[in-house]
C-alpha cells in the first residue's frame, strides 16, 4: 500500500514537472524545407522561444490552442548577406529591421561594417526590450592595401583605426598576433570573420584554422585580388560570396570576357571550383540581385546549381531597403533553381552559414521558434511568402 502511494506521488510530480507550452498551434501543414514536402495536420507547441513538440493533430482542437487549419507553417527566412552596420546609425538600422520583418526574414548574417550599432541592437534583442530578426555579425578583415584606398568610417570615433570588428591585416602578422585578433573579435560578439580583399592564400591558410580553433565561421569573398576563387575555397573559407567573383573580378565587367564566358575552357575552369566546393561543402552566397546588370551571371548561378553547389540566399543589402524576396524570385525565375531548393537556400543553408544547423531554418523539436504562418503552400509558389497570416520570432508574434 505504501509503495502504491509513493508511486502515485511520483506520477503526479512527473505530470506537474512536464513543461507547459506557451503556445500550441493546432492542425497546421508543416513545410518540411529540408525535404521539400508538406507534412499535413500537425500540432506544434512552443515554449520559451523553442519548438517543444510536434505531433499529429488530435481530431478536435483543445481549449487555448490556436487553430491553424488550412494554413502552412515554415521556418523564418535567413538573409545570409547584409550590411546593417554600414551606416552606423540606429535609426537607419531600425528601418531596415522593419523592412526585413515585412519580408519574413528572422535571421541575418551581417558581412561587415560598423558593428557598434549592431551590438546595441543585439543587446536590445537579448534583454527582450526589442523583438526583431536575430543578427550574426562578423569582424571584417582585409589587407592594408584595401584600407589605404578608403576612409575607415566603420571604426570612426574608436581610439584606434583597427577595432575588434575591423582589422587591417599586415602581410607579416604572426600566428600569435592573428590569434589575438580572432579572440578580440569573438569577445566583441562576432561569430565569424569576413575575409575580404588583399589576403593572400598563405594568409588565409594561417587565419582559417584559428577561426575554427575559437569556434568562429570563416566567411569570405570568392576572389580577393590576391587569392583566386579556387585558392580561397581550398584555404577553407566556408561561405564564399558573389557569383561575379567566381567569374573573376577582372572578367565580370569586361564585355570581351562575356563573349568567352561559356567557352569550354572557362566552363572547365569554373567546374574545378565547383568540384572543390562540393567536396568541402563550401556554400555559394550568390547575391544575384546586386549583380543584375550582368545578366550573363544568371547562367553561371544555374551552372553552379546544376553542378550541385550548395547555394544560400544573400542580398548584400546596404541601403536600408531590403531586397530579399527579389533575390528569391531571381534565383527561381532567372537562375533556374527549383522553388523547394530556393526555400532550402533561404532557411536550411542559411542556418549552416551561421553555424546553427538543426537549430534554425527548420520546423523541428528543439529548434528556435522563428515561424512564418502562410495562407498558401510556398513549395508551389513563392508568392505564398507575401500572403502571410503571422510571423513569430523566438515564439513571439511580430506584427
Ligand atoms: Zn557584402
Automatic annotation (TrEMBL):
Coiled-coil stretches: none
Domain Amidohydrolase-related as annotated: residue spans: 72-393
UniProt-listed InterPro entries: Amidohydro-rel, Metal-dep_hydrolase_composite, Metal_Hydrolase, Metallo-dep_Hydrolase
GO molecular function list: hydrolase activity, acting on carbon-nitrogen (but not peptide) bonds
A Pfam short name: Amidohydro_1
Designated name of the protein: Amidohydrolase-related domain-containing protein
Organism of provenance: Butyricimonas faecalis
Lineage: Bacteria, Pseudomonadati, Bacteroidota, Bacteroidia, Bacteroidales
